[in-house]
Amino acid sequence: MDLYSNLKQGERGAWVSIISYVVLSTVKFIAGVAGSSEALKADALNNTTDVIASVAVLIGLRISQKPPDDNHRYGHLRAETIASLIASFIMAAVGLEVLTDAIGSIYSEEAQTPSPFTAFVALASGIVMYGVYRYNLRLSKKIGSSALRAAALDNRSDALVSLGAAAGIGGAIFGFPVIDTITALIIALLILLAAASIFKEAVYTLTDGFDEEEGEALAHLATSVPGVIRLKDFKGRMHGNMIFIDLTVTVDPSLDVVESHRITEQIERRLQKVKPLSTVLVHIEPEFQKKP
């Protein structure tokens, strides 16, 4: 297991996303203004939020690579989660701005028909972002990075948004200009939903939330180790991609220190086999039979 090396490799995916988003958001915004497409401009603003989110992931990956120090005994792995939380607020602000502009355009006196070339720009953007999604997904599987996988899924969402914008622009070109504005509304809602999802996940992690089913599976794995009589306590929490597990098991009180320690090592090995990026702390207690 080389967690910090994986984080370093993950920076490549973040940079690919940043460069792609900067180029595409610039091209789409210019094309949206020139071609009178609200949907394409909204899609461009959506990509600006993704630039911010990708930069936040990059900064988080950089800070997370700092080793533990006197003030951060568990390391700096939660820096990425904090950056994601900040990015969710920025995304929500931009989403509200896009929503406000789209609603305002509905009540405008004239609804302009977008230029056909804006549909091609949106379509090309969707194809490019799908390529970025495939790259980041493949890299996330290679290095086992859940953060990069989340970024890849965000890339896929942006590809779908761009393809949706192309469809909306196409409808407007064929005589229904309001479809372009409605598509902008949908894009705004997608931005807000993405922001809410990132916010929820970040808060869940920062408040030491841990999946109940995963905890039960790991607890069952610990109790299956020969010599373990009972599981008294189990706690799990996430620090970036790292899982910290603390558990207490009881054993036969007649066991000596060496035998008890061997049981803790077996528990650690079994849990780390299914969760390589984990730190397991096992506390052993004697199991005394209660007198009747």
Q: Notable features of this structure?
A:
mainly alpha, 292 residues, Alpha-lytic protease prodomain-like, Alpha-Beta Plaits, 2 domains, elongated
Structure, explained:
There is one protein chain. This protein has 292 residues and is mainly alpha-helical. It has 2 domains: 3-207, Alpha-lytic protease prodomain-like (Up-down Bundle); 212-286, Cation efflux protein, cytoplasmic domain (Alpha-Beta Plaits, 2-Layer Sandwich), CATH 3.30.70.1350. 69% of the residues lie in helices and 10% in strands. A 3-stranded mixed beta sheet has the order 1-2-3, covered by helices on one side. Helix 3 runs antiparallel to helix 6 (178-206). The radius of gyration is 25 Å and the shape is elongated. Belongs to the cation diffusion facilitator (CDF) transporter (TC 2.A.4) family. One of its GO terms (cellular component) is membrane. It is found in: Membrane. This is Transporter.
